[in-house]
Q: What sequence folds into this?
């Protein structure tokens, strides 16, 4: 199947509740343009340098999502154009995004990355840390970032029940934040969960954004 057909198939599977982000790390611009020419404009990159390079080479109506771990010293390179940053895991990073967004007269959508997996290698905040961040005075001062939702990565396992439990715990926390901390303020709308191997489970458990690479472009 072609890239366009793969995208169509996945979009049909996740409709109407979730949107697809095509994960394009290590993929050449030609492959992205194949998807773009078929009308697809939502791409996710793991690395700042690669995103910056592709942004320069491609049409400017693309929605760029940074989904990989982000270092504070790299924020300035993507602040002028990034649509959403999925991997915010500290107040310090959020403050830097706010600072760089302000320089570019922008408000940047951010997702707080929660640690939900059974692995030590994944980044993310605990539920307590997320609550602490959202209720801090330092956070309230930030005018150029918007917390649009949460992101999480399930354990890399074949145990579907475990994956489901992890996604479910994130959805539960998402709902809890919306009914408590964020009630009456701007509500959280996005829940970024699910990749090529588990996006169908993620959608069943309430994901609104799935990050899919190899199921679209083939494995590297």
A:
């Amino acid at each position: 199947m072609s890239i366009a057909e793969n995208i169509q198939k996945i979009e049909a599977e996740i409709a109407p509740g979730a949107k697809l982000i095509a994960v394009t790390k290590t993929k050449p611009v030609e492959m992205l343009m194949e998807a773009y020419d078929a009308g697809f404009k939502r791409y996710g990159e793991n690395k700042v340098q690669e995103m910056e390079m592709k942004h320069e080479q491609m049409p400017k109506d693309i929605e760029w999502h940074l989904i990989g771990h982000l270092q504070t010293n790299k924020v300035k390179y993507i602040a002028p154009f990034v649509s959403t940053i999925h991997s915010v895991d500290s107040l310090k990073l959020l403050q830097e995004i706010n600072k760089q967004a302000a320089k570019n007269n922008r408000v940047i959508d951010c997702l707080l990355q929660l640690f939900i997996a059974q692995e030590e290698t994944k980044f993310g905040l605990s539920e307590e840390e997320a609550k602490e961040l959202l209720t801090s005075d330092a956070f309230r001062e930030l005018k150029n970032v918007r917390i649009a939702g949460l992101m999480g990565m399930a354990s890399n396992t074949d145990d579907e029940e475990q994956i489901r439990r992890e996604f479910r715990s994130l959805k539960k926390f998402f709902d809890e934040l919306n009914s408590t901390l964020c009630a009456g303020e701007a509500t959280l709308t996005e829940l970024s969960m699910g990749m090529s191997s588990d996006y169908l489970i993620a959608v069943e458990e309430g994901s609104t954004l799935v990050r899919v690479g190899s199921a679209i472009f083939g494995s590297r």
About this structure: The chain has a mean pLDDT of 95. The chain has one domain: 3-217. Residues 3-217 form a domain with the TIM Barrel fold (CATH 3.20.20.10). The longest helix spans residues 160-179.
